[in-house]
Amino acid sequence: MRFGDIIRDLLEEHNMTQRELASKLNLAASTLGSYVQNVREPDFETLKRIAAYFHVSTDYLLDCRSEKADTRAEDELLCVFRSLTPEQREIYLIQGKAMVKLNRKKDAESYQSIS
């Protein structure tokens, strides 16, 4: 999917007009229109502002990721992680690694029961 199509989808999803988004991002409506029409692509700073506004990654906007839901969940996890203290981050990582280990153990048990 092209950049403009992704922006168009996000606008629809958020029930917004191009003019409203342009105003929120301090862009000329014609500039945003050229993005939506796939005539131009934004510079990196504008790309980051658009991503931040819609709470998606720049990779998602550039269609580097295939699943928007996964991207949003990953972005949310990263946002939570960044808001923690160093001690809390350590606990967060330990818990996450424990969950991965538990999943691997369950997968191994499932595989053994099949064999």
Spell out the blueprint of helices and strands.
Blueprint: H1 3-13, H2 18-24, H3 29-36, H4 44-54, H5 58-61, H6 68-82, H7 86-114
Helix pairs in contact: 2-3
3D structure, described in words:
The chain is mainly alpha-helical. It folds into two domains: 3-66, Orthogonal Bundle (434 Repressor (Amino-terminal Domain)); 69-114. It is 74% helix and 0% strand. The protein has helices spanning 3-13, 18-24, 29-36, 44-54, 58-61, 68-82, 86-114. The longest helix has 29 residues, at 86-114. The chain is elongated.
Q: Total number of β-strand segments?
A: 0
- Taken together, the total number of domains comes to 2
Mean pLDDT: 87
Shape from CA axes?
Answer: elongated
Task: Say what the CATH topology of the largest domain is.
Answer: 434 Repressor (Amino-terminal Domain)
Strand content: under 5%
Query: Percent range for helical residues?
Result: over 70%
Using the CA coordinates, give the radius of gyration. Answer: 20 Å
For CATH, the homologous superfamily of the largest domain is named as lambda repressor-like DNA-binding domains
Instruction: Supply the number of helical segments.
Output: 7
* Largest pleated sheet: none
Regions with little confidence, pLDDT below 50 for 5+ residues = none
